[in-house]
Amino acid sequence: MIHPHTPEPIQYIAEDGQPVQALPERFTPDLLRGLHHDMLRAREFDRKLITLLRQGRTTFYAQSSGMEATQVGLARSLQAGHDWVWPYYRDHTLALSMGMPMFDLLSQCLGTNSDSCRGRQMPHHFASAALKFVSISSSIASQVPPAAGSAMAQKYLGSDEITVCTFGDGATSEGDWHAGMNMAGTAKAPCLFVCENNQWAISTGVQQQTASETIHVKARAYGMPGYYVDGNDIVAVMEVCAHAAAGVRAGDGPALVECLTYRVGSHSNADADAEKQYRTRDEVNLWLARDPILRVEKLLEHLGHPVSTEERSEIITQTHREVDQDVIRAEASGQPDWRIMFEDVYADLPSHLREQAAALRAEQEGVRA
Amino acid sequence: MTATQEKRDTAETGNGETRTINLIQAVTEALAEELERDRRVVLFGEDVGARGGVFMATAGLQARFGKERVFDTPLSEASIVGAAVGMAARGLRPVAEIQFADYMGPGFDQIISQAAKLRYRSGGQFTCPLVIRTPSGGGVKGGHHHSQSPESYYTHTPGLKVVMPSTPYDAKGLLKAAIRGDDPVIFFEPKRLYRAAKGEVPDHDYTVRIGEAAVRREGTDLSLIGYGGVMPDVERAAAALAAEGVSAEVIDLRSLLPWDQGTVVRSVQKTGRAVLVSEAPRTSNFMGEVAYVIQEQAFDTLRAPVGQVAGFDTPYPYVQDKVYLPGPNRILAACVKALNY
Hints:
The structure holds two protein chains of two kinds.
Chain A: H1 29-54, H2 68-75, E1 84-86, H3 92-98, H4 102-110, H5 144-157, E2 163-168, H6 175-187, E3 191-197, E4 200-201, E5 204-205, H7 206-209, E6 226-230, H8 234-249, E7 255-260, H9 275-278, H10 281-288, H11 292-302, H12 309-332, H13 351-368
Parallel strand pairs in A: 1-2, 2-3, 3-7, 6-7
Antiparallel strand pairs in A: 4-5
Chain B: H1 3-11, E1 18-22, H2 23-37, E2 41-45, H3 61-65, E3 70-72, H4 77-89, E4 93-97, H5 108-115, H6 118-121, E5 131-136, H7 151-155, E6 161-163, H8 168-180, E7 185-190, E8 198-202, E9 214-217, E10 222-226, H9 231-243, E11 248-252, E12 255-257, H10 261-271, E13 274-281, H11 286-298, E14 307-311, H12 321-324, H13 328-339
Helix pairs in contact in B: 2-8, 4-5, 9-13, 10-11
């Protein structure tokens, strides 16, 4: 039985890969191998994107290495393409796991013509109407009140979709976070809030972010259950998120899940070197030992279904090949031209924008001539 | 309103009888008719439900349309605007009321980061057709948190539409257009005109196109251009000028983003003089943009520098409420200066 407001994070797999409680039946070796595959694929995607950054083919990237169990586990607890997602900017693993093609993610990160967002946003701010994965805003916690509204609309419209809203620990300090949580709580809106507590908001640690012991305790103040989960334990994340989502879907109102995890990399490429200034090697090493991918590998070994070196290499090779092919295909689609700058500002182009576009066209054509 | 303007507005939806109502009644009627017309329309904000809003703009609507469609929210502008964004993205037509424009600060991030940019940043995959209604402007002894004119913060934001009517006809027609449109609209209601502005509205359904100014009075010597709460004083000043034999053309911008550059420029090209009137603080006032466009597009025809009458660059003062506002005398002084240049 899963309970909210536990003093310690809910856990199924210990750091050494041993189950700390009986695994639910659905976690067959095949399912665990699938989860392992998705997490390893996401990590290799991270590695490849760092390479693309170094090659100057993209300009910004926020790794999710170390947080794979949280994002893959959450994705597997939702109905992809049915439930609505208001994500934050570190959620590419969530997007991949919900079925967003790697090509679409890469197209956005590269700002090519194949980017469904048309090169308007900085890299790593993707969206997909087909997946109901709403466009990411860089403003921290800005997505929280709209997620509450999305869930309120859901209630009004009356189907069994739910809204999921993700954010980091830093977001919980913003006014928008409290406003959105309060709104969803009072409206009993079908919204699942998931805090991916990776313990660092750029260089500010979670202890400097909040005076409360954990994030999940704040749920009490908004009249919703708060679950505390080991975010590096994919079985625990899936079990708790599925449980919380079921309650939300059943009309019980919103819920908050805090996944305690860690980003082992820097905040983004922007602070790759600065990272050493705010946290110790010992701390990083402690969390490397809690790695979610290794943990599942150890569990599978314990269950007598180890992932072989060849199988592991095949996932890595296949991911790298896929990224390489998709990058070539995305870049081949070219860069959006200046015209798209004026589109989608409004439903129809107003006259002042028509005039500004005409002036830019003259300038651009003059340059070409 | 000119005959031409009225013809264009009514031509969209046919003709009918008219009634005289005030501006707040026009707002209420627009809301009621849109709630009736489209089940996607929902109304919410602080006190809009049983209370009917502090100005009674939503009076009776919860009783008529139910708590599911007309409801009170927590006291949080970020929640109200943000929830409207989420609802709009899901296909509803939310109309959010912010009790006073002065209180929109906590919702500012939601307006500029979310509402204004959702369509653009998602490449058109998600849209945000919402309306934020809010009473604005001074003249009601409200002090600086109940009297400000913050429209310039919003006219500086691509992706938003910004509207401010001054007559019941425009309030009703523009609000309906805003609700039916596919873009986020900030709908400022000049609160001192809520009951002071009376006028005829047709019995039949009509809309007023966002982005078109109205020529309230035609003239040849000077263009007086304003919007919102200052319009009655602008018209009083024009009447006083007429008594002295000066023919002033009066233009009500009605929409600030987008705004009707053509009507303004054509008028100034005809009259050779322009005086711009608003009650917002002078520095970075929206009328600065209007003045720029006039000098850019009608410079050769100008016979005097463009005059501007605005509020002062101070927080809105409680005791000097009426002194702060640009009344007919200050408007007339600017006109005389332009005429004698």
